[in-house]
Every structure is written in C-alpha cells, then in structure tokens.
Sequence to fold (266 residues):
Amino acid sequence: MKHIFSKSNRALLAELVRTDFKLRYQGSALGYAWSLLRPLFMFGILFIVFNFIFKVGKGIPNYPIYLFVGIVLWNFFNEMTSQSLGSIVARGSLIRKVRIPRWMIIVSTSVAALINVSLNLIIVLVLSVASGLDFMPTSIYFPLFVLEVYLFALGVSLILAPLFVKYRDITYIWDVLTQAGFYATPILYPLTLVKQEIIQKLMFINPMAQAIQGAREIYVTKETLTIGEVYGTPWAVLIPLSVVIVVLVSGVLYFKKQAPKFAEEL
Fold:
C-alpha cells in the first residue's frame, strides 16, 4: 500500500492526469470550458423538451436542479467509463517503453473525470443559490453519492479497458448500453411515473438509479422516491451497494489478471 502511494507514483499520476486533459481538449477553441459547457447545453435542451413540451417536470419541486443533478452524476459515470475504455490502448506506446503500473492509467482517467464533476457540481451549487433552493442539512451527505458513482464507474472501467484491448467492438456495445442506461435510469423523469412496483424495484438494483435518487432526496426535495420507500426498508440500500462492491472487486481482479498481457496484445 505504501508503494502504491509513493512520491514517484503520485508524481506520475499527476503527470498522467495533466496529459489526459491536454489530449482531450487538444485543438479545441474553448478547451477546458467544454467540460462545463457540455452538461449545461445538455441540461438546457432536455429541460426545454421534458419540462415545456412533455411537461414531465410538472409538480416536481425545483425541477431544473432535480434534472441537473441527475445529468451531472450520469455524465460523470459516462465520461469516466467511456474515457477509461480506450485508455490502455491509447497509452500503448508508453506501456511498451516504460515500466508503469497499468492501474495508474485507469486511475488517472478517473481523476480527470472527478475534477470535471467537481467543477460541474460548483455550477449546480451556483444554480441552486440563484433559483432560491432551500438547502437542507442532509446536503452534506451529497459527496457520499458521488463516491458511490465513482467506485461503481471505477469497477466498470477496470473491466472495460482490458476487454477493449482484446475486442475493439466493445466501444460500440458500450455506447449502446450507456444510451439505454440513460433512459432506463430516472434522470429525465420522476420514478413515480413508473407505476409497476416490481419495475421500480428492478430499476433500483442499478447503483446509478439509487445514487441519483438518493442525491436528489437529500439535496433537492424530500418528495423524491427512494429505494427505502420502494422496498419498504432503509436496508434495501445494501442491494445496489452490494452491486458496487461486486463490480469493483471483479474489476480489480480481472484487471490484475489481464495487465501483464497488455504489452503483448497492444
């Protein structure tokens, strides 16, 4: 453990994060500003469509913040997994030339995504103040849901990256899955629109659904339907948390097994 967090590893991780940011926005006129503008544009479009056209937000207190929280957390998961997916292949020349801990490439990508979501959450805070949101004491627990999303995304990333080294079709499959996951997760709509209780329970097995609903409940409005209400017990939160742990442990073990083969397969 001490070796993992050694001074040299920390310096290497910092350099990888800086390089990741430079490569991601290379050739862009607005550069890093896109990390803030993209979720704002997405929020604006979806807010107009689902609030004014489909009127999904009718009756939901502070619907703009309610929607934006869901978009920011989902974008965090999507960015982290999508960027990590091809990170090993993108660093192929570095892996072949330098003896570098393979896991550090995934972690550097995740840290870059973590920085982006932190900046986006500052915008959430600013919009919350501007809209007159009545802050609840429970808001202090918001970082716990960010941590849950991070650990879940990290586990998924540790599985996707080695798979992509072998099978390049994974990127297309993952694009389809994340697109389906976006609409299967209550981001644009309140979960109360889903009338079948069994479907609500199945949706909450997904850690993203539980994290987004939980974050909304402690930050935006207590009227948010949570996993505890659907299952009838607060202990139900252990179901999606168990999924996070299983995915993370599986990801670590799979990545550790595949890492020694990267240099040969790239």
In short: The chain has a mean pLDDT of 90.
